[in-house]
Design brief:
Blueprint (H helix, E strand, L loop, with lengths): L6 H14 L11 H39 L5 H11 L5 H10 L1 H12 L1
Helix pairs in contact: 1-2, 2-4, 4-5
Length: about 120
Amino acid sequence: MPRSVNSVASHRKRKKILKETRGYWGRRKNVYTVAKNALEKGLSYAYRDRRNKKRSFRALWIQRINAGVRQYDMSYSEFIGKLNKKGIVLSRKVLADLAMNEPKAFEAVVKAVKD
């Protein structure tokens, strides 16, 4: 008996991959085997970088807080240590935003910590 192949399913699978790679450059968008590899690589980068994004934003917030605190003759680590000792619970995201956009409010936080 001849071999039976489910061409409907295999075409659907290929079509799905090629639809996701629309917009890629060169053969990555229209040759199935190349597109499949490009898509797998792209999805793995996306998974990895969703986690790296959190790291890089935290680093950015720390740099901004440090720059804001240096104006008041303190270091970042000194500021965070005193902040924790005083029991002031503010995230680094909020502190960085205050340092950038609300200098008066940030100054009030620094003065509360210094006293």
